[in-house]
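Annotators were shown the component list below and the corresponding predicted structure, then asked to write short factual statements about the assembly.
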Amino acid sequence: MSNINIDAIKEQTFDVIVIGSGISGGWAAKEFTEKGLKTLVLERGKDVQHIKDYPTTNKYPYEFEHRGALTLEIEKANPIVSKCYAFREDAMHFMVKDNEHPYVQEKPFDWIRGYQVGGKSLLWARQTQRWSDFDFEGPARDNFAVDWPIRYQDIDPWYGYVERFAGIAGNKDGLAELPDGDFLPGYPLNAAEDFFRGVIKNKYPDRHVISARCAHLSRPQQVHFDQGRAKCQNRVLCQRGCPFGGYFSSNASTLPWAAKTGNLTLRPFSVVESVIYDDAKGKVTGVRVVDTNSKAVTEFYARVIFVNAGALNTNLILLNSKSKRFPDGLGNDSGLLGKYVAFHNYSARVSAEFDGLKQYTTDGRTPNDGGYMPRFRNLHQQETGFKRGYAIAFRAGRDVERDSSPIGADLKNNLINGKLGPWKMHSHMMGETIPKESNFVSLHATKTDNWGVPLLNVSVDYDENDALMKKDYLEQVTEMFTQAGFKNIEPNAKTQAPGLDIHEMGGVRMGNDPKTSLLNKWNQLHACHNVFVTDGACMTSTSTQNPSLTYMALTARAADYAVQAMKKTEI
Amino acid sequence: MNRRLVIKQVLIMAGGIALLPACVREEGQSTVSWKNIKLTLDQENFLADVAETLIPETDTPGAKKLNLHLFVLKMLDDCYSSVDQQLFLKGMSQLQDKSYDQFTKSYTKLSKRQQQEVLLQIQHDKSKSPELDAFYKITKQQTINGYMNSKYVMTNLVKWELVPGRYNGYFPVKSA
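Structure shown to annotators:
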């Protein structure tokens, strides 16, 4: 009898368990399996295999029942996720419907999720800009949150490591605030974007427009062919999943790579209810999993646990992992677990028209979405009435205008033979928000989901600093567009709740001091050394860059450290 | 255009497999069973004539051949509120009445020029009823939407590429 139990436990035992298969979980899986460790990856959603499970990937617009639009029924049933630009007929099967996984909005927060193998790495906007020391030194210099326990030099080699494997297209721009990486050729700016770059270069020596760096294979290398990926074909239908593997996702890259080692066990439909802390052993021994279909509860065991469930769900799992030693959630000696959640402020845009360069237009499509201006406000020193600053995304294009006012043959003629309109320039802000104790997530006292896991309360809001920064963005872009001679400049202070940026971060922040942070410089829980958090939950501050590249680099770095610590039997 | 292509297009325009024609239907009912709206075969044919007036057959297919009226109804049925649906259906009757009042003939029997005249009157009438307004706006908008997003237009007239494989940000504009 006891032998059977021992066998059963053996079958359920791995070297490492990775919770989550998204952009950071995929990297953890790759690193551990490559180093010969038996790795279990738990995914709460369905399996999505590269190419095979991209049902819409090769569809033409007329093959969609509503030509891409949402039906009223779907829109009404999903007021939250319907706000997301990617929730359309071609990709809505990769996004969580509101009623499937409820949460409690103590303040308005649009929580956009992708519960499937690959997570949101299938859907991300693929922008990959490095952080610099202007970012890592930010909290210490400007006196907010806590000091990052790492600096740029700690992560620099790991950025290069993940860039070479993932494939990042970009130019060497030589900017201290946006360090160069190990790039494939960058995508070019178009005529109007390039013109704007020139204007800024002349009139604002401290501001720089570059071609946005993105996770696309502009010129694949052997390591990409080895992953089964090919050159990006400029489809820009990425949210459907790419049959060429032209952009980086867990599905196209890290997970199949991990599977090839023979060391990967991938288990979809597995919600992690909690991480199991053994009070006697003084460490974590495994995780408790609920099968989402059968609701059966199973335990899996491992020496090391990586929590990569997606920023807020990582908070949820740790908060729900209670033991005698940790009554308020795993590793939560400081009482700060779930607090200091932050995000990116995307709540303003400016558009304009440009009458010049009519001899050019664009042909084909670009996957990098145009130009990018890294943060210039308060970069070297505090110089405005608000803390930190914002990056700006730019994109220009010429629409074909089709006058639909007539009817009959004239209408038909206008529709078929459109006229090329002027260049239109669009920009949006990506503002750094300041993590605060009052922006937090917590467990709901009574409500649980279908699997008995408490619902997450989300209490996150903008503050005065965000409002001042937004005003400055609107003023500055209006001024820059005016300098460029653009017409019909339209500042748009659209309101959107936090969350829709899909850059939620923090709650399990890194720091040097266990009294004021949860994770050390290796993304290891201060109070429980065999648990690591390397997704967005670990972020001490948010900076302005799209965060995924940093999650990837932190994950590879932490996994390397964990393997060494296991060898030395420290964990 | 060969017959097989037409049939294929009819099926696609009708929304593919999700829109199976009702096998057993009451006499005079629409060829498609809709979820939320109810209309007669007569009304369906009338809408086809209106769509054809908006986008007529020339040397290329028009709305009728591309079954755009069924696309308009599909969108009306799935993507508009019940308030809009009711306004649309009432507006459709009002237009039928209007053409009869004006020419003592049903819209279908009017000349092409007369049909255009009726629609242009509605388009330019600033004091038209909310029902007519809803009917005309939705019909025109979705007929254009269906046309521009039809397989025929996307493969023959305004081509859409699934796999461009290129980007040129300095593409020279051909002078007219």
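Statements collected:
1. The two ends of chain A are 31 Å apart (CA to CA).
2. The CA atoms of residues 398 and 423 of chain A lie 5 Å apart.
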